[in-house]
Specification:
Blueprint: E1 7-13, H1 21-33, E2 36-44, H2 55-85, E3 90-97, H3 99-110, E4 115-119, H4 127-138, E5 143-146, E6 157-161, H5 166-179, E7 184-191, H6 202-205, H7 207-211, E8 216-222, H8 228-238, E9 243-247, H9 261-269, E10 274-277
Parallel strand pairs: 1-2, 1-4, 2-3, 4-5, 6-7, 6-9, 7-8, 9-10
Antiparallel strand pairs: 5-10
Helix pairs in contact: 3-4, 8-9
InterPro entries: Universal_stress_UspA, UspA
Domain UspA: 159-276
Pfam families: Usp
C-alpha cells in the first residue's frame, strides 16, 4: 500500500475523450493507496466580451452555459459513481467558470490535496495546457500527467530525471511515497544539455533513496544535438519505465511559452506518466 498519500485530486475537461486516462489511472492509484479522490469536471464558461452584443446573442450564450454546466455536472456524478463502483471513496463537483478563473480555481483545490492527476496534452495553446501550467506553478503540490491509454497505475520501474536542481530535489521528495513501491529506480543524468557545475551529481543523490529502502542505480545519458528531452523519452521507452519523476523548469519568471526544453518535450510527448513538481 502507498503510505502518506491519502488525498488525490483528479481533473478532467468534458471536451476531452469520453474516457479520460487520468480518471481511471487515478482510481487505480487511489485504490492501492486507500486514498480519497476528489473529482473536478472542468467546464469553461462562454463569456460575452462586446458591450454592444445583442440581447438575443446574450440569451443564447446564457442558454449554452446552462447546457455546458449541466453536462459537466452529469459527467462529475457519473465519474463519482464509477469510482465508488471500483471501491474508491469519491466526491465530485463540476467547476463552470470563465477560463482564467477556472484554471485558478482548480490550482487552489490542488493545494489542499497530496497529489493532482490530469491528462497530458500536447497543444501548448490549449485550455488543458493552461490548467496544467497554472496547477504546476501555483499549487505547490506534485502533478501527474497521464498520456492516453494509461488506465492502470503501476510502478515497477521509475526514472528520476536528475539535474541536481532544487526543483528536481522537490520532485524526488514529493514522489517518495510512490518510489517506495518500485522494484527499480534509475537516477538519470543527461550530459551536454546545460551547465551542471553548481548541481548535485546523481551519485550523491543515490544514497538518499537507498536509505528509504529504494533500490536505485545511476545512469548517464548524452543529449545528442542538445535534445535532453528526447534522450530521456527514448530511455524511458527502452527500459519500459512506468513513471518519470522530474522538476519542472522555466527559462524566466514569465511563464507563458517559456517552459524549459526537457519539460516542454515531456509535456508534449511523454511515453509514460510524468510526475512534475515546481
Amino acid at each position: 500500500m502507498i503510505q502518506n498519500l491519502k488525498s488525490v485530486l483528479i481533473g478532467f475537461n468534458q471536451e476531452e475523450r469520453a474516457r479520460p486516462s487520468a480518471l481511471h489511472y487515478g482510481f487505480s492509484l487511489a485504490r492501492q493507496a486507500d486514498a480519497h479522490v476528489s473529482i473536478a469536471a472542468l467546464s469553461p464558461e462562454l463569456t460575452v466580451t462586446h458591450a454592444f452584443i445583442s440581447e438575443v446573442a446574450t440569451t443564447l450564450v446564457e442558454e449554452e452555459n446552462r447546457r455546458l454546466k449541466g453536462i459537466a455536472s452529469e459527467l462529475a456524478e457519473q465519474a463519482r459513481q464509477d469510482g465508488q463502483a471500483q471501491g474508491v471513496s469519491c466526491t465530485a463537483e463540476a467547476i463552470h467558470r470563465s477560463y482564467p478563473v477556472l484554471a485558478t480555481e482548480f490550482a487552489k483545490r490542488a493545494r489542499v490535496h497530496d497529489l493532482t492527476i490530469f491528462d497530458a496534452h500536447p497543444d501548448a495553446l490549449s485550455f488543458n495546457r493552461g490548467v496544467i501550467e497554472e496547477t504546476l506553478f501555483n499549487s505547490g503540490r506534485p502533478l501527474i500527467l497521464v498520456p492516453p491509454s494509461f488506465d492502470t497505475f503501476k510502478i515497477s520501474t521509475a526514472i528520476i530525471a536528475w539535474d541536481g536542481s532544487a526543483k528536481a530535489a522537490k520532485a524526488v521528495a514529493d514522489a517518495l511515497p510512490l518510489l517506495k513501491m518500485t522494484q527499480k529506480v534509475e537516477i538519470v543524468c543527461i550530459s551536454r544539455e546545460k551547465d551542471l557545475s553548481a548541481s548535485v551529481p546523481g551519485a550523491e543523490l543515490a544514497p538518499n533513496p537507498t536509505r528509504h529502502e529504494i533500490d536505485c542505480t545511476v545512469t548517464e545519458l548524452t543529449a545528442h544535438n542538445g535534445d535532453a528531452g528526447e534522450a530521456l523519452r527514448s530511455h524511458a521507452s527502452h527500459i519500459r519505465a512506468d513513471l518519470i519523476v522530474m522538476g519542472a523548469f522555466v527559462h524566466s519568471r514569465l511563464r507563458q511559452f517559456v517552459l524549459g526544453g526537457v519539460t516542454h518535450t515531456m509535456l508534449n510527448n511523454s511515453p509514460v506518466p510524468v510526475l512534475l513538481s515546481y
